[in-house]
Amino acid sequence: MNEFSDTIAVALKYDGLAAPQVTAKDSGQGGENIIELARQYGIPIHEDPALAQILSQIQLGESIPEDLFVIVAEILAFAYTISGQTPSINATITSKD
């Protein structure tokens, strides 16, 4: 087992109008690639293994379910604060065990 095998990354996009959508997801080395791209583009990264696992079950292009609105809203609010942006914003949620 290598150091990337447990990494899960899920990228979300929120335009301020509709629920956030899953725009990318992968695990292992692919997850690490998503994280690296997010870093390169200055996209905020939030590490939450449990949430990353749940979000990874959502199909690409699909909106997050209502039961995740509050937690994702808190993460996006944090992302807005540290990046000085308002919607539209991207965020990446990761699991690095």
What is the structure about, briefly put?
With 97 residues, the protein is of the alpha+beta class.
Which helices and strands appear, and what pairs or packs with what?
Layout: E1 8-14, E2 21-27, H1 29-40, E3 45-47, H2 49-55, H3 69-83, E4 89-95
Parallel strand pairs: 3-4
Antiparallel strand pairs: 1-2, 1-4
Explain how this protein is built.
The chain is an alpha+beta fold. It has 3 helices and 4 strands. Strands 2-1-4-3 form a 4-stranded mixed beta sheet, with helices on both faces.
Q: Sheet with the most strands?
A: 4 strands, mixed
Helix content: 25-40%
What would the CATH topology be? name from scop
CATH architecture: 3-Layer(aba) Sandwich
Distance between the first and last residues' Cα: 12 Å
CATH structural class = Alpha Beta
In percent, how much strand structure appears in the residues? 15-25%
The coarse silhouette is globular
Topology as a string of helices (H) and strands (E): EEHEHHE
Supply database-style keywords:
35% helix; 97 residues; 3 helices; alpha+beta; 4 strands; name from scop; four-stranded mixed β-sheet
